[in-house]
Amino acid sequence: MVSSVHPLRLGVNLDHIATLRNARGEDHPALRRAVEVALKAGVDGITLHLREDRRHIVDSDLHELSPLLALHGTPLNLEIAATEEMLAIARTISPPWVCLVPEKRAELTTEGGLDLHNAQSGFLPTCCTTLAEIGVQVSLFVDPSVQALEAAADLKAPAVEVHTGPWCNAVRLHGLNSAPAQAEWHKLVTSAEACERLGLAFHAGHGLRYDTAQRIASLANLREVNIGQFIVGEAIFDGLEIAIRKMRAALDAGRAGV
Ligand code: PXP
After folding, report:
1. Does the C-beta of 17 come closer than 6 Å to ligand 1?
2. Which of 98, 99, 109 to mutate to test the pocket of ligand 1 (most atoms within 8 A of CB)?
3. Which atom of ligand 1 is closest in space to residue 101's alpha carbon?
4. Per-residue pLDDT at 2
5. Tens of pLDDT along 142-151?
6. Which residues of 47-62 are buried (b: 16+ CB within 10 A; e: fewer)?
7. Average of pLDDT values for 128-133?
8. Are 15 and 32 spatial neighbours (Cβ–Cβ below 8 Å)?
9. For residue 181, which of 24, 131, 153, 170 is within the disulfide window of CB 3.0 to 4.6 Å?
10. How far is CA 108 from the centre of its chain?
11. Could you give all domains of the chain from N- to C-terminal order, each with its CATH number?
12. How far apart are CA 177 and CA 187, in angstroms?
């Protein structure tokens, strides 16, 4: 059983502001302005995914925004693949957090968690130790499986971000209380318990909307959620500040019932 209730941080992923900006190859909408609005809305962190193909966030975004966030005291969570190129960039930027994710060139978004079957033999252990040595906290993006969480603990990562995409898809397609959604939810509950047992800080993300954010906030040891696509989409209708505040309210409502 999970015993302690942790404060729940909301990290907002602003990649798709950059996607829109890059569609014209110009400077609007400016990412900096989006970060300033997100800070005003009270976010606890900003996540930026520097992909190998630079399809949204580009290197200059990191150089511009990392000092701004540091000045504000709001952590940057840099999402990267475990490659030599990305590790070198992370060493230069030295963000408070790095989330290591798998990356496939042709995918629309991060499709699954890291493959940790042979985690000790690839570049992942080097990434984890190098980042730890320079004081960067690492979270590993993993599927909601106990085996993956045990492998993450073996890598001595302080945190994991558990992939909520399959659950969110089941909720979207079949409803929050449907059998497919319940089956995926069970994996998240089991993951929360495994994190507690393994001493891993439990983060979650991917595909979360207001309803699923409220539900997942009921997991008492969840410390952080990272949400992008839905908030940026809602910003079209409500504005970014209101969309973030509504997401915060959904999390708080879910937490209130714990
Ligand atoms: N966490 C990770 C590791 C991701 O790759 C993404 C997508 O970039 C997110 C969270 C946010 O997912 P979404 O945009 O679906 O909210």
Report:
1. no
2. 109
3. 3
4. 58
5. 999 999 999 9
6. bbbbbeeeebbbeebb
7. 97
8. no
9. 170
10. 16
11. 9-256 (3.20.20.70)
12. 15
For 73, which DSSP code?
T
Pocket lining: 93 vs ligand 1, CB cutoff 6 Å: no
- The answer, yes or no, to whether any atom of ligand 1 lies below 6 A from the CB of 230, is yes
% of the chain exceeding 70 in pLDDT: 99
> Ligand 1: distance of its center to the CA of 205 in Å?
6
Summarised one tens digit per residue, pLDDT across range 181-206 is 999 999 999 999 999 999 999 999 99
- Catalytic (active site) residue 193: no
Token pair in block for residue 257: 């019932």
Q: Is 101 in the pocket of ligand 1 (CB under 6 A)?
A: yes
Cβ of 205 closer than 6 Å to ligand 1, yes or no, is yes
DSSP per-residue string spanning 6-58: PP-EEEEE-HHHHHHHHHHTSS-S-HHHHHHHHHHTT-SEEEEE--TT-SS--
Q: How many CB atoms lie within 10 A of CB 122?
A: 14
> Catalytic pick from 49, 56, 163, 203?
49
Tokens 């495994």 -> residue: 194
Q: Helix count (H) and strand count (E) of the chain?
A: 11, 8
Q: Are 43 and 247 in contact (CB under 8 A)?
A: no
**pTM greater than the 0.85 cutoff:** yes
Gap between the Cα atoms of 177 and 215, Å rounded? 11
Which residue blocks in 74-178 are alpha helix, DSSP H? 84-93, 124-133, 146-154, 165-174
Region 109-120: mean pLDDT is: 82
